[in-house]
Amino acid sequence: MGKLKTLRYRIRNDQYIIFLGSGASFESGAYTSPQIALDILRHIYPAKTEGELEQQFESDYKKTVTFENILGTFGAGKEDHKSLLKSYFENMEPSEGYSFLALLLKEGVFLPVVFTTNFEHMLEFAIEKDKISDKNTHVSSKIAEDILSLDDLKPKTNEIIVVHLHGDLYRDEPLKTSDEQYSSLPKECERALQQLFEEHGFVVTGYRLRDTGVRNALQGAKPSKNGIFWISKSPLDEEKDREILTLLKKNKSLDNSIHGVTFDDVFIELGSKLKKVLVRKRYESKLNHCWNQLNMVGSSAKGRRDTLDEMYVFSLPGLISASVDYLVHFAPMSSGRS
């Protein structure tokens, strides 16, 4: 957790840009590309065992089993691809990590521009659902083709921009689902991404730099002033992740590789203190009332329980746990304040 503390310290002074890959949404219930491919095969060959699925597909269609090949085979066109994929994302809910990231963005800890390769709107939903921050923020969702200059990535007052580089499930435009489509970004978007990277640096999580377009853009950029923090659940492999390690080295950020943590772990760690401060500020008078009541009932378990139940009246839906969390951290059970 030492490197995570370094990141927490750095974001106090430097506004980084968040870059999210598919791994950021695992804890929100996202399917990986291989999982989607396998599930499609299960529907095509319901009588086959899991061990026979790939073999049967390869025999029938003379293709290897990849997400791109299966989507291309069983989706008649690009619009079919979108409707087919939409079913895998419609029941997702933003994880706790997204809730904390939304709070950090609304409070200006990170630059209010986020790049993502994900099709879904977990971040947008989390920002819209947030009740901790009193900032009246709105979200603008864009795709790569919307970015015609750096001006398109300059947020207006109280705006957060989320750029879906591979397409957006909720837009009419087709999604990018093949290596060929990933091979390049629109030139204007690529240059704008590079400029922001050079000036601010990225915090990258849930991403392995597999698509050529993003990789070329980052490799073609000048070294970033603030460098990169690269967060992954598993350690970077010298062979499989050579491109990432080369990029980190170029940006003097080899020491900024953080592994062994999930997306939720990272943003809960980065945002928990901020959340407590905001909850305290917003609900302090009501929480003080509860504190005084707790002191009055002393060690009576029933009295304490009744007092905590009052917080259901004081708290907005979704903030009850935050208020209880406040008591745990700021009001230790005793006969008086410490």
What's the short story on this structure?
The chain has 338 residues and is an alpha/beta fold.
The CATH fourth-level homologous superfamily of the largest domain: TPP-binding domain
Q: Globular, elongated, flat, extended or rod-shaped: what is the shape?
A: globular
- The secondary-structure element order is HEHHHHHEHEEHHEHEHEHHH
First and last CA, distance: 30 Å
Q: Would you tell me the overall average pLDDT?
A: 87
Helix percent reads 40-55%
Structural class: alpha/beta
Provide an overview of this structure.
With 338 residues, the chain is α/β, with parallel strands linked by helices. The chain has 3 domains: 2-28 and 92-261, 3-Layer(aba) Sandwich (Rossmann fold); 33-86, no CATH class; 280-330. 49% of the residues lie in helices and 9% in strands. It has helices at 2-10, 33-44, 50-61, 67-74, 78-86, 96-106, 122-129, 179-182, 187-200, 212-220, 242-250, 263-297, 301-314, 320-330, and strands spanning 17-20, 113-116, 138-143, 159-164, 202-205, 228-232, 257-259. A 7-stranded parallel β-sheet has the order 3-4-2-1-5-6-7. Helix 2 (33-44) packs across helix 4.
Please describe the topology of this protein.
Blueprint: H1 2-10, E1 17-20, H2 33-44, H3 50-61, H4 67-74, H5 78-86, H6 96-106, E2 113-116, H7 122-129, E3 138-143, E4 159-164, H8 179-182, H9 187-200, E5 202-205, H10 212-220, E6 228-232, H11 242-250, E7 257-259, H12 263-297, H13 301-314, H14 320-330
Helix pairs in contact: 2-4, 6-7, 6-12, 9-10, 12-13, 12-14
Key phrases:
338 residues, alpha/beta, Rossmann fold, seven-stranded parallel sheet, 14 helices, 7 strands, 49% helix, disordered C terminus
